[in-house]
Design a protein that fits this description.
LuxR C-terminal-related transcriptional regulator; 0% strand; single chain; WH-like_DNA-bd_sf; Sig_transdc_resp-reg_C-effctor; elongated; transcription regulation
Length: 545
């Protein structure tokens, strides 16, 4: 065995959470000798936290065997659990499940009354949660928490609170669930949790807040996770996820260059950790940022990478097709993915894009059904973010139906909500719609003010596609390519340029000839040209076709 003096630097480094130093000192001390069980556990944890997953797994297995040989059966079960749980988190289901099962079997066969009996319930509870058995999951998490309290283990109690909160939220008890999420974070703030559990709790709470569109909590705990990661510069496992959470919030709050930088850093870090579920989402966020800025090729590549890493390309890809004027492709994709979506959070993430595309193809009944579903979710979840989306959707539908006065009430409600939430891109889009409503009501001064405000936000963001849709007259000297055409009008313009008559266009798009007549009139007015031929020339000159 090593002397205490030789092990002291590694133990001190571990205590102050200098993980690279702890790993170097303890692994150096372990060469050619045998570490005590406590020090082997420290080395296994340090190896994991500096990103040496395979070595950490070997150390947990070794400590498990040494604990068995020493007759320390509770420790042996604990090491088997952490080895199995880590493997499960990295996607190795069979191997991870086998080690967790070994831990449970050891506890049962030896009749051990120990806190590890609570830990082995966690994977089963997570399985029930994933299968939609919220009642069963809640019971298992609660049993784990009771053992954690009885044995004075704050780590297990925090994991129990997180799981119970997720189960309650899944069963529709949003406020009670959110309260338990906050309770899990209290132990984190108090510095009571081990780094193995702290990262799990942070990421679990933030992801759950995002699922229920609780922007305030997600932002608050993401800031706390950032501080926690920054206090441990050598930490590897959770830093990539932290960057993803930060990038998502930066995107919402309009810091797009910073969001791009964080998302790209997350892609780089997470690509080096096989099985990390956040990798695909990091690439998807890159795709969203490129799409919003009109960088079509870069967006295509990022969405493709997201798909390779197991994250869906939608609804971002459908919105990209819409922005490119490929309305039929956008419609087919969005109808399919909404039809396949079953969970509330997944449908809520798709519905805004669905409504936008249904408006573009003039399927008002489908757009209205989507807006109604979104509004119901907003009330059920008490989520201001969803309320803002639903109000904006109602206003856009009323405007498309030719009732600008009715549209204004919903649009102004959405405007107030987006201002409170500090989401400038959505705010700019709503201000643009308010401008159109005012314009149709003959209030030119108010329309100009709204358009100018929307334009300012969009220029600051670099949102060139949305900027190009604003009416040209509102900006005094706007570049000619800012045409203001909707995606459907762009599609009609391309068909005009191909030589098709209004009747042929109506037949191809499955709408009435009168609808196409209206689109053609809007196109000529927006482009300020006298004829279809002139519109075609304009489209060619400005690369709209």
């Amino acid at each position: 065995m090593m002397t205490t003096d030789a092990l002291h630097p590694g133990r001190v480094a571990f205590q102050r959470r200098a993980w690279a130093d702890a790993y170097a000192e303890l692994s150096g001390a372990a060469r050619g000798t045998t570490l005590a069980l406590d020090d082997l556990e420290r080395l296994a944890i340090a190896a994991y936290l500096v990103g040496k997953d395979a070595e950490s797994n070997d150390l947990w297995a070794r400590t498990h065997q040494d604990a068995l040989a020493a007759g320390d059966l509770a420790r042996a079960a604990r090491c088997a659990f952490w080895l199995g749980f880590g493997l499960l988190m990295s996607g190795e289901k069979a191997r991870g499940g086998a080690w967790v099962a070994r831990a449970g079997r050891l506890i049962d066969e030896e009749g051990l009354d120990c806190v590890e009996g609570g830990y082995v319930r966690i994977p089963a509870a997570l399985g029930s949660l994933g299968a939609g058995d919220h009642v069963g999951a809640h019971a298992l998490f609660r049993q784990a928490g009771e053992l954690g309290r009885r044995f004075g283990d704050p780590n297990l109690v925090a994991m129990s609170c997180l799981g119970q909160g997720q189960a309650l939220i899944g069963s529709g008890k949003i406020q009670a669930g959110a309260t338990l999420l906050d309770e899990a974070m209290v132990a984190m703030d108090a510095g009571e949790l081990s780094p193995l559990v702290a990262g799990i709790v942070y990421c679990g709470v933030i992801e759950t807040c995002q699922q229920i569109f609780d922007l305030r909590r997600a932002q608050e705990w993401t800031a706390a996770l950032t501080r926690w990661c920054e206090s441990q510069p050598e930490l590897v496992p959770y830093r990539g996820r932290c960057l993803v959470h930060r990038a998502e919030l930066m995107l919402l709050h309009g810091s797009w260059p910073d969001a791009q930088q964080e998302a790209e850093k997350a892609c780089h870090r997470l690509c080096n950790r096989p099985g990390e579920a956040a990798t695909g989402y990091a690439f998807y966020l890159c795709g969203e940022l490129h799409r919003l800025r009109g960088e079509w090729r870069e967006a295509e590549r990022a969405y493709a990478q997201a798909s390779r890493w197991g994250h869906a390309q939608q609804p971002g890809l459908a919105l990209l097709r819409l922005a490119q004027g490929k309305v039929d492709a956008a419609e087919a994709a969005i109808r399919r993915i909404l039809g396949e979506a079953s969970g509330e959070s997944s449908r809520a993430a798709i519905l805004p894009a669905y409504i936008e595309i249904m408006l573009a193809v003039e399927d008002m009944s489908a757009a209205q059904a989507g807006a109604d579903e979104l509004a119901e979710m907003a009330e059920r979840l008490n989520a201001p973010f969803l309320r803002a989306l639903a109000a904006g959707a109602r206003g856009a539908i009323r405007l498309a139906e030719g009732d600008p006065r009715a549209a204004l009430g919903s649009l102004r409600q959405a405007c107030r909500l987006w201002e409170d939430l500090e989401v400038p891109y959505e705010l700019a889009r709503i201000r643009g719609l308010i401008g159109r409503a005012c314009e149709r009501l003959g209030d030119a001064d108010s329309a100009r003010m709204e358009f100018d405000t929307a334009r300012w936000y969009l220029r600051e963001l670099g949102a060139s596609p949305e900027l190009s849709r604003l009416p040209a007259h509102a900006c005094g000297g706007t570049a000619p390519h800012r045409h203001g055409l909707t995606p459907r009008e762009l599609q009609v313009l391309r068909l005009i340029a191909s030589g098709k008559t209004n009747k042929a266009i109506a037949r191809e798009l499955g709408v009435s000839e009168r609808t196409i007549d209206r689109h053609v009139g809007n196109i000529l007015a927006k482009l300020n040209v006298p004829s279809r031929t002139a519109a075609t020339a304009y489209a060619c000159q400005h690369q709209l076709i």
